[in-house]
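Thread: Newbie trying to understand structure tokens

Hi all, I'm a second-year student working on a class project, and my supervisor (Dr. K.) asked me to get a predicted structure for one chain before our next meeting. I've only ever worked with sequences, so writing a 3D structure as a token string is new to me. If someone could post the tokens and maybe explain what I'm looking at, I'd be very grateful. Here's the chain:
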Amino acid sequence: MIDRKLRIGIVCPYSWDYPGGVQNHVRDLAEFLINNGHHVEVLAPATESDDLPSYVVSAGRAISIPYNGAVARILFGVVANSRVRSWIHEGNFDLLHLHEPAIPSLSLLACWAGEGAMVGTFHAAAKYQKAIVAIGPILEPVIEKLSARIAVSESARLTLTAHLETDAIVIPNGIYADNYRDGSPRQEWQGNTIGFLGRFEEDRKGLPVLLNALPIISRFIPDIRVLIAGPGDSEEVLENVDPQLRNRVEFLGKISEEDKADFLASVSLYIAPNTGGESFGIILAEAMAGGATVVASDIPAFADVLGNGQYGSLFESENYESLAKVVIDLLRDQAKREDLANAGATHAQRFDWSQVGEEIFEVYELAMVSGQKVSLSSENRSWTRLLGRD
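---
Reply by user tm_fold:
Sure, no problem. This is what the structure looks like when written as tokens:
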């Protein structure tokens, strides 16, 4: 067992300027480790700004590329490689923790450059992709350099095994459960309300499925209201809603973490109608911790988080009639709603950082059994072959 304080370098592949699930996970993990006395630096694509946390080092501005049904803002190439190597050299780290090291990113560059104790966390859950398999011969030797591998869900683990024929231990994303347990119900958000939270303009978040279910739900629950929190163009979305039902839909805009806790404590049901591309579903863990009754599509990642229906209700993904039926049933049965909410609140503790952080640190200890410190490898040209420069 390692009882000394460590110097830990964490690499975030996605831009710190655009918060997302991976960035939030890296932020919370870094702060958990710092609060436990370790020295932590995070290397990430970011614009130079006074708003960056003191532990974040900018590797430069990211570029945007389509990836897994969304837009990934990453950094890769010759200049990025030089910055990664300098950061590793200057950091004198005991261990590197690389997030998504199998995609062209800072994490992949760090995996090529580093030697010694390195842990990789794999977040993505994606269908079998020939493009990834095609570069497998380049990626596999790099991924084999990792001392240990973590997947944030069974779906992410299966994606890793399918594409790179390697395995990982499953440790879920973490939340600070207490932050959501203290939410206060707000009168304006109560009643027969169903809530949605997220970037609703992204098709894979599934808001159209929820809105398509609204006409059916309103026939049985005439006073139903849909509360939508998150960034996006509300007017464009409303154009696709029956004019007679538009007064049932309210857009709250982007809300703070404190408001999110109140939101989850207020709505009758929290709806997650995502259609795919999710590797975990951190909002489900937050919603359960906040005492909400969760209704989610039955995509594999969501089914895993909800215990296949033990901690929230599932409906057939992309089927608005299935969603409407589940919502109507729950809004008519208060006892069932309360039972699911109570079960979910208890289950949410499994995702608290007090447990998740300790599990990750145990992996660090295993990775460092050899006692090797991180160092730079000899120059490796594989990354230039991947960019087509050799």
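A couple of things are worth pointing out once you decode it. The chain has two domains: 7-174+352-386, 177-350. The first helix runs from residue 21 to 35. Feel free to ask follow-ups in this thread.
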